[in-house]
Amino acid sequence: MCRKYTKPKEVKFQVFSSFFLSDSPYQQQHLIIRLNFKPFYLRAPPLESINRSTSKIEYAIEWNIRNARKGFDSPCKKDYTTAYAKFNAQLQWRCVAKGNGTANIMVIGNSVAQRAYLLIYEILKGRFNELRLFARNNCAALSNECPSFSEAMRKVVQHEKPDILFSMHITLAEPYVKPVEDLETDLIYNQFQSNVNFISNYTKYIVIDMPYYKYSNFNSGAVLARRLQRGLFLGDEFIITWQQYIDQAQHHRKRISSLVCNKCIINDVAEGLFQNGIFFAYDPRTYFARIGDGTHLTTVGIELLRPLYKRIIEKLLQELNEESLHQDKGKQ
Question: Which InterPro entries does this one have (predicted)?
Fold first, then answer.
């Protein structure tokens, strides 16, 4: 049963933007594609030129346009050590950062893993030996939907033996979200379980994220910018109830929560996104989109997950440190 909520107030004014956004999904997508070309993009005024205190809506429009299809730059360098995995697709999503600690940490998954990597990196603040990213677009690492990617992932895990492994993915593909009839024969569940069993042989902790809400054919950042530009009511599409999320993800969640694994920690990211049964897909104070392109969290959205990741990371680093101290005492 969903709790009652109050809709955000309608924006009563229009603001001119350097881009005009259309109702047409095709034209919205075409605009976003054009934004990827540097000459056109440079026609937009830099965000720094807009006074945030006097032009809140204008700034939000420009911010949302830029974040409607924007990837994150990973603070890591090319990972030459994974050449033995014989997997060369999207090399920019396989990299490693060096720290000043002792823990070896690995992040695997599809495109959401690449975005979560930056948050994990910031929380760690160098308290690691290596922080490795091994991701592939549209490929859930714990399944075998991309066989060559999953095989390469297993090779890297076996070779690098990370102390902590983070796994996250998001998808609305039918095998993941269809009802579970029987776990013993369910394809995706058994692939998850098989890969978790394998990874458990080479790591101390496995952190698996639950999926968060994903729009279907709805570029939330572009639509939000367009409605702000025209002074329209922002719309119920940006107010997601817990029941909507469960209707979308309940079977995917069951496949994850049913895993048998004493090294696994389930990170229910929905805890960070939903407040009182509601997730606003934009920040009501700033009008910045929390989901940029309909699928991926923006920097504003992923910031909501910081407390969850921080709690897990601090706990695991402490346990690794205590284990190391115990081993050192045993050697004396």
Answer: Acyltransferase_3, SGNH
Nearest CA among 322, 293, 307 for reference residue 223: 293
Architecture of domain 77-327: 3-Layer(aba) Sandwich (3.40)
Collapse the DSSP code of 327 into the 3-class scheme (helix H, G, I; strand E, B; otherwise coil) and give the result: helix
Q: Residue 140's Cα: distance from chain center in Å?
A: 12
Termini Cα distance of the chain: 59
Are 70 and 44 in contact by the 8 Å Cβ rule? The answer is no
Domain spans, the chain: 77-327
Q: What is the DSSP letter of 143?
A: S
Sheet holding 77-78, edge to edge: 77-78, 94-98, 130-135, 104-109, 164-168, 205-209, 264-267
CA 233 from chain centre, in angstroms, equals 28
Instruction: Classify strands 264-267 and 205-209 as parallel, antiparallel or unpaired.
Output: parallel
Residue 80 amino acid letter: Y
Handedness of CA 267, 268, 269, 272 (dihedral sign): negative
Beta bridge partners of 264: 206
One DSSP character per residue, 77-119 reads EE-GGGGGG---TTGGGEEEEE-SSS-EEEEEESHHHHHHHHH
Each residue's pLDDT, cut to its tens digit, for the chain (332 residues) gives 333 333 333 333 333 333 334 444 444 444 333 333 332 333 445 566 666 666 788 889 988 988 877 677 778 888 887 788 888 777 778 899 999 999 999 999 999 998 899 999 999 999 999 999 999 999 999 999 999 999 999 999 999 999 999 999 999 999 999 999 999 999 999 999 999 999 999 999 999 999 999 998 899 999 999 999 888 889 899 999 999 999 999 999 999 999 999 999 999 999 899 999 999 999 999 999 999 999 999 999 999 999 999 999 999 999 999 987 877 666 66
Tell me phi and psi for residue 132, to 5 degrees: -105, 135
Among left, alpha and beta (phi > 0; psi -120 to 50; other), residue 126 is: left
Residue 102 CA to residue 191 CA, distance in Å, equals 31
